[in-house]
């Protein structure tokens, strides 16, 4: 069994390290060598582990467990051929050692043959009465294959073996969430809590599941129980604060965020949430104070710069908003939300070329929302580049084929280019989808509306609406 990486060096380890510093050679039994090697592996001291393996095999050349540890190091170092050769030799001597199958499975996994690894791990399960580690490995192999249902079942087995195996518990909930089985996760956690009523981790996870389903009162109770179980559990206070925000209880939310700061060093995320709460309460100066604290605490937190940007944008201080959105895009230049915000700010400053570039970036990085397309087309229209506006709107139509506003704007831009046939085509389609959109169309494209053809359309529209 592997030793805890946090354990203090035992007497054999101290003795072994003393031996390395001298020319003396001490004798250890094979189990001592196993403990020494596990200690070094768990602490990432591979070179010392290899020395211990070498000396151990010199003193105990037939020790299968030491050979298996040698194989483990070979696999870690991607020396797969050497590992397989040693496994072949070992298997001739012992056909029923589950560790041989586990190490073969690790080799298969390294070669991306996850199904092969699973088959080997299943064989290992047949050879042992203690399948805890094997089920954990099975769970990981299933995750590699994106088989979240089987991964979930494997990690559940680990939790059955050890109800304090929180790593496996987290993995179970991760699988539930990926499968969007939130009710299943809630049922599982409630059942787990029947046997482990003081598990702060389970209460915390249960609260998060309720939060995802917008069951805020239930989430609040769960986080309260997590805090009762461990009154220093920062995650529970933080998540409770988020629930209180959703319930509009901003002062209470602030108290919980401040508690996280008292328990440990301040975090940028806590400052950010406190700032947003003060903003909701109308405490403008306090909001600004905490937003600046956010970026001071973590200058690379792009959400902090975005919060300051939004703060100034709402105050219509677009110059300062532009300065801070640039900070955010410099940190995360592939975030479409930041580029869209940059486009809106540049448009508000009448810097249409910059807005054009920003909206293009937003689209290129995956923001296909309707208003992103429409705002991009708007700034291009402002530059009198009607041909580009048509190209943008035609692309937008592919993503939003049933939106009348795109069709109205296509009609208007074709009319500005003098292509009345195309203008007629698109306005006819737009009117079928949304006749009421004609009012805005008249405001945005008044020249087209003075044509005889459009006058007839307007007359028909008036008569229909009487």
UniProtKB/TrEMBL annotation:
It holds the Pfam family TPR_6. Residues 66-96 form a coiled coil. InterPro entries: TPR-like_helical_dom_sf, TPR_rpt. The keyword Coiled coil applies. Keywords: Coiled coil, TPR repeat. PANTHER family: CELL DIVISION CYCLE 16,23,27, CELL DIVISION CYCLE PROTEIN 27 HOMOLOG. This is Tetratricopeptide TPR_1 repeat-containing protein. The lineage of its organism: Bacteria, Pseudomonadati, Bacteroidota, Flavobacteriia, Flavobacteriales.
């Amino acid at each position: 069994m592997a030793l805890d990486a946090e354990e203090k060096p035992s007497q054999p380890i101290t003795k072994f390290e003393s031996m390395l510093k001298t020319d003396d050679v001490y004798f250890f039994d094979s189990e001592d060598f196993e403990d020494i090697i596990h200690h070094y592996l768990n602490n990432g001291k591979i070179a010392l582990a290899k020395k211990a393996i070498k000396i151990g095999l010199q003193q105990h050349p037939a020790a299968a467990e030491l050979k298996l540890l040698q194989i483990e190091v070979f696999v870690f170092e991607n020396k797969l051929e050497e590992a397989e050769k040693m496994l072949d030799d070992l298997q001739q001597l012992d056909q029923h050692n589950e560790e041989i199958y586990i190490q073969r499975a690790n080799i298969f996994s390294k070669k991306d043959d996850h199904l092969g690894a699973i088959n080997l791990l299943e064989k290992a399960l047949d050879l042992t009465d203690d399948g805890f580690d094997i089920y954990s490995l099975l769970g990981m192999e299933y995750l590699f294959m994106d088989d979240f249902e089987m991964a979930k079942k494997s990690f559940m087995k680990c939790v059955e073996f050890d109800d304090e195996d929180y790593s496996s518990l987290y993995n179970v909930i991760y699988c539930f969430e990926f499968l969007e089985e939130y009710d299943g996760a809630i049922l599982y956690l409630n059942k787990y809590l029947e046997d482990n009523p003081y598990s702060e981790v389970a209460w915390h996870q249960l609260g998060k599941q309720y939060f995802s389903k917008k069951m805020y009162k239930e989430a609040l109770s769960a986080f309260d129980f997590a805090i009762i179980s461990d009154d220093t559990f920062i995650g529970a206070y933080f998540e409770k604060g988020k629930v209180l925000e959703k319930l509009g209880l901003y002062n209470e939310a602030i108290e919980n965020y401040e508690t996280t700061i008292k328990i440990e060093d301040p975090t940028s995320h806590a400052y950010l949430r406190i700032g947003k709460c003060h903003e909701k309460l109308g405490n403008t100066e306090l909001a600004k104070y905490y937003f600046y604290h956010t970026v001071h605490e973590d200058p690379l937190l792009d959400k902090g710069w975005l919060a300051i940007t939004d703060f100034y944008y709402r105050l219509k201080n677009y110059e300062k908003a532009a300065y801070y959105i640039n900070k955010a895009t410099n940190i995360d230049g592939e975030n479409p939300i930041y580029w869209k915000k940059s486009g809106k700010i540049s448009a508000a400053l009448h810097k249409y070329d910059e807005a054009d570039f920003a909206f293009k970036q937003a689209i290129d990085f995956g923001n296909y929302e309707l208003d992103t397309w429409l705002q991009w087309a708007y700034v291009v229209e402002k530059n009198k580049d009607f041909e580009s506006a048509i190209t943008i709107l035609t692309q937008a139509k592919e993503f939003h084929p049933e939106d009348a506003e795109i069709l109205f704007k296509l009609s208007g831009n074709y009319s500005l280019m003098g292509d009345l046939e195309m203008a007629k085509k698109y306005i006819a389609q737009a009117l079928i989808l949304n006749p009421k959109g004609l009012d805005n169309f008249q405001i945005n494209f008044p020249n087209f509306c003075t044509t005889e053809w459009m006058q007839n359309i307007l007359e028909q529209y008036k008569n229909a609406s009487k």
